[in-house]
Specification:
The structure holds two protein chains of two kinds. In chain A, about 30% of the residues lie in helices and about 25% in strands. By secondary structure, chain A is of the alpha+beta class. In chain A, the strands form three sheets. Chain A has a four-stranded antiparallel β-sheet with strand order 1-9-3-4, covered by helices on one side. In chain A, strands 2-8-7 form a three-stranded antiparallel β-sheet, with no helix packed on it. Chain A has a three-stranded antiparallel β-sheet with strand order 6-5-10. In chain A, strand 5 and strand 6 form a beta hairpin. By secondary structure, chain B is α+β, with helices and mostly antiparallel strands. In chain B, helix 2 packs across helix 5. The longest helix of chain B is centred in the first third of the chain and has 24 residues. Chain B is elongated, with a radius of gyration of 22 Å. The two termini of chain B are about 30 Å apart. Classes of the chains: A alpha+beta, B alpha+beta. The interface between A and B is medium-sized, with 33 and 34 residues.
Chain lengths: ~260, ~200
């Protein structure tokens, strides 16, 4: 769990750091931390869902019916990987790409990966990075299993599921998906472009909700600051899409056998 | 100074007021002035003055068990200020970090809110005179804590130590305490202990 030790390193781009900056600016104490944090998260979600999406990887359990409940905050999927021993094998990537664009050397794709319980052939290489898994990233070997990478995503009135093929052997999968990128159970690390917007959003809510001396003009001035900050974010960040992500996360690397 | 003004003399054998009563009254006056200071400073965007705050350090947090929230008991009552501002700060002694202070109701209301987990941080909320944690095993993981309360408690001050009052408020404190004892002395009562108090 995050913060099991109180590690003060890498403080400056945490969402909580922005919240505390706002507390400092207004001479307030930690009684207001949770309120300001909730405002910051709502403001960020509002911006991130259409302007500044992020990618996230989660490890999810596969049910007995070969279904996987997709986390909330899901916008679109990018790739799915299966943990295999100490490695991760890419099960599938989003099928908008043409088959001949998958991987660097399609001739070495293998479907016999499942028969090696402890690792991979040293000659296998190529794969994709799975991004933003608990603040880090890892490589998934391969470019997708051609015979096994089939599944459906269904939406049951807000509860989304992945339906895997009957013969997919995984009990857990790694799902990389486009989302708002916020981490509600641990520290959210913000893109530097979003720091200023977040601070101004909290200030706007504080002015509207907490300032007993507020006027219409002061609230509107704060809202205008937020508007211009969001315009700066839009100018700096592009909308994230699957193709951009896949291009960015492709990786050629040779794995070494475990000794 | 208070006895000098009330008795028109320095403390002597004939003093009728117990000095301990005076200390308790001074504490009460200072605590009420702390509240005034808080709202006065609020206008300028600041918080309460340091001289109204008492700090306790190396307090132990009790871990009742796994999945049972940790807690510690407050060493003193604190001044009633908005948003639990009477609890000025709770911080860890190991790698000092301020801990969010919640209210008991908000802690439950925020469960459906993205901020409910406080970005992975522990938080404390008061239930009576006990501070409960939002997680279990706080003491085992984070160790002891420091606590700052808006309270003036003279029992922690040595009899020969200076009583900490903001310099600009000394005269006001003495004046209020003297007025209080004068009003009390003016209340009529008889001295015969016969279960029949008559003015």
């Amino acid at each position: 769990m995050a913060l099991d030790n109180i590690d003060q390193q890498n403080n400056y781009y945490k969402l909580s750091s922005v919240v505390e900056q706002c507390l400092l600016d207004n001479g307030l104490k930690m009684q207001y931390f949770q309120k300001f944090l909730s405002w910051a998260i709502w403001g960020l979600r509002e911006l991130k869902l259409d302007t500044a999406q992020d990618v996230k990887t989660e490890l999810i359990t596969v049910s007995e019916r070969k279904t996987v409940a997709i986390p909330d905050g899901f916008v679109d999927w990018v790739k799915i990987g299966i943990p295999t021993g100490q490695y991760v094998q890419t099960l599938a990537i989003n099928d908008d790409l043409r088959l001949d664009e998958r991987g660097f050397n399609p001739s070495i794709l293998t479907t016999s990966f499942n028969s090696k319980p402890n690792g991979l052939e040293a000659t296998n290489y190529g794969g994709y990075y799975f991004m933003n898994f608990q603040g880090s990233s890892f490589i998934g070997v391969g470019s997708g299993l051609q015979s096994k990478g089939h599944f459906n995503i269904v939406n049951h009135d807000g509860c989304k599921e992945i339906l895997l093929d009957y013969d997919v052997y995984a009990t857990q999968i790694y799902l990389e998906y486009i989302t708002d990128g916020l981490n509600y159970c641990g520290e959210t690390i913000l893109d530097p472009y979003l720091m200023d917007y977040t601070l101004k959003y909290i200030e706007m809510k504080r002015e509207a909700k907490l300032n007993p001396n507020k006027t219409r003009a002061s609230v509107e001035a704060a809202e205008e600051d937020v508007y211009w900050a969001s315009r700066k974010v839009r100018a700096r960040k592009n909308n994230l899409d699957r193709r951009t992500l896949l291009m960015m996360s492709r990786k050629e690397a040779r794995l070494t056998p475990k000794l | 100074m208070v006895i000098n003004q009330l008795e028109n003399d320095w403390p002597n054998r004939d003093i009728k007021i117990d000095p301990r009563d005076i200390l308790l009254r001074i504490d009460a006056v200072v605590n009420s002035m702390a509240k005034e200071n808080y709202f006065e400073n609020w206008k300028f965007g600041g918080s309460i003055d340091e001289q109204f705050i008492t700090t306790w350090e190396d307090l132990s947090v009790t871990d009742p068990g796994t999945l049972i929230p940790s807690y510690f008991d407050l060493p003193a009552n604190y001044v009633a200020l908005p948003n639990n501002a009477g609890i000025d700060e709770i911080y860890t002694m190991k790698k000092p970090m301020s801990i969010p202070i919640l209210s008991a109701t908000d802690m439950r209301l925020y469960k459906n809110n993205p901020a409910g987990n406080l970005e992975g941080r522990p938080g404390f909320y008061p239930v009576g005179t006990r501070m409960k944690c939002t997680r279990d095993r706080f003491g085992a993981i984070f160790g002891k804590i420091g606590l700052r309360l808006v309270i003036r408690d003279s029992s922690a001050i040595g009899s020969n130590d200076p009583y900490p009052i903001p310099a600009d408020m000394e005269e006001e404190v003495i004046k209020r305490v003297v007025m209080w004892f004068k009003d009390k002395r003016d209340q009529p009562t008889d001295r015969v202990r016969d279960l029949n108090d008559q003015a």
